[in-house]
Design brief:
There is one protein chain. By secondary structure, this protein is an alpha/beta fold. It has 2 domains: 2-110, RNA methyltransferase domain (HRMD) like (Transcription Regulator spoIIAA); 118-333, Rossmann fold (3-Layer(aba) Sandwich), CATH 3.40.50.150. The protein is 29% helix and 29% strand. The protein contains 9 helices and 16 strands. The chain has helices at 2-18, 35-38, 71-83, 146-154, 172-179, 192-204, 219-228, 257-266, 285-298, and strands at residues 29-34, 48-53, 56-62, 89-95, 105-109, 116-122, 125-131, 162-166, 184-189, 212-216, 233-238, 243-245, 250-252, 268-279, 304-309, 327-333. The chain has a 7-stranded mixed β-sheet with strand order 10-9-8-11-14-16-15, with helices on both faces. β6 (116-122) and β7 (125-131) form a beta hairpin. α1 (2-18) crosses α3 (71-83). The longest helix has 17 residues, at 2-18. The protein is globular and about 60 Å long. The chain starts with a helix and ends with a strand.
Length: 334
């Protein structure tokens, strides 16, 4: 079994190598293997993903439908393939279908520093991000949003514009917005530690204190507060979790997209740009767009589609596993 796994990981590496995705690999971040999209759902590797952050690996397991490869099998195969490519160690995180994941553990090789920097290159722009592999349950950078970061920093649509980044996590989309020419960036997240992390990322990328604000609070409380004050933005960004529970309400992308977008439109300036994305294989494109359009009509907005947000090449989809294509989004002018 380990020989077959090794061969599968090698094939994924070579596919990225031939497409040019592995340039500057040991200073940057990239998904090196995406099990749900690269192998059949019944394959033991279908529940695993491997990301490279600098010279360290972040290996994730989800509970799937079939019996997954064991951690020991993953250890052997990943060490054999990636150590010869210059990776010095690997951290593993196991995610149960329900409940909180275990804390990450060193799987093989050298332990990464508590925090370190990776960079992302996009058409002449260089974005820097703080990464933590052993301190929490996520490294701090969503690799599937690399195309959106590229659009924000390289499209020319943000020059001189005020930006509100909601559900901001560690602020990578705020960084991309600033490098794209935004005049001011307001970053909102529910977690105080990740809001502080976003502020560190902002400083690392040269966002001046006077051109940035970092708000710690619930979207469904803070955005209405901004709207009541008449505080509007030229660009509003939304990338909510599939499900969250706040102090006063729960949120689900399957049920609450209309309410969510009504609030987004309430703080979007006339003619402004809405950037909306979700991580939800269970919400079809058609329903998603229908919900956004319904919210726009309620507030008398007409939408012009500027683009769609989809997964990058390093997150392929498998023809018999539609859930492997989970990321979707729209860029509208209103």
């Amino acid at each position: 079994m380990s020989i077959e796994m090794t061969r599968t990981l090698e094939q994924a590496w070579n596919a990225r190598l031939h497409s040019g995705q592995l340039e500057r690999i040991h200073e940057s971040a990239l998904r090196l293997f995406y099990g749900p999209g690269e192998v059949h759902p019944r394959d033991p590797l279908a529940s695993w993903a491997i990301d490279g952050y600098g010279s360290s690996l972040w290996i994730t397991e989800w509970e799937g439908e079939s019996a997954p490869a064991s951690v020991e099998e993953i250890r052997k195969a990943s060490e054999q393939v990636y150590s010869r490519e210059g990776y010095r160690g690997a951290v593993v995180l196991r995610r149960p279908r329900q409940g909180i994941p275990e804390m990450p553990q060193l799987l093989w090789g050298e332990a990464p520093p508590p925090s370190f920097r990776v960079v992302e290159h996009a058409d002449g722009h260089v974005m820097s991000f703080e990464i933590q592999l052993l301190e929490g349950r996520h490294p701090g950078l969503f690799l599937d949003h690399a195309p959106l970061r590229r659009w924000l920093c390289c499209s020319g649509k943000l020059a001189g514009r005020r930006v509100l980044n909601t559900f901001a996590y560690t602020g990578s989309l705020s960084v991309a917005s600033w490098l794209g020419g935004a005049s001011e960036v307001v970053t909102l997240d529910l977690s105080r530690p990740t809001t502080q992390w976003a502020e560190r990322n902002g400083r690392m990328n040269g966002i001046p204190v006077e051109r940035s604000r970092y708000l710690f609070g619930d979207f469904f409380e803070e955005v209405p507060r901004l709207a009541r004050r008449g505080d509007t933005f030229d660009v509003v960004i939304s990338d909510p979790p599939s499900f969250s529970r706040g102090k006063k309400r729960t949120f689900s992308t399957q049920k609450d997209l209309v309410d969510l977008h009504e609030l987004l439109f309430s703080v979007l300036s006339p003619g402004g740009v809405l950037v909306t994305s979700i991580n939800s294989a269970n919400v079809p494109w058609e329903k998603y767009e229908r919900d956004v359009q319904q919210a726009a009509r309620k507030l008398g907005r007409k939408l012009k589609l500027l683009g769609r947000i989809e997964q990058p090449e390093s997150f392929p989809s498998h023809p018999v596993n539609p859930k492997s294509r989970y990321l979707k989004g729209f860029i509208f002018q209103s």
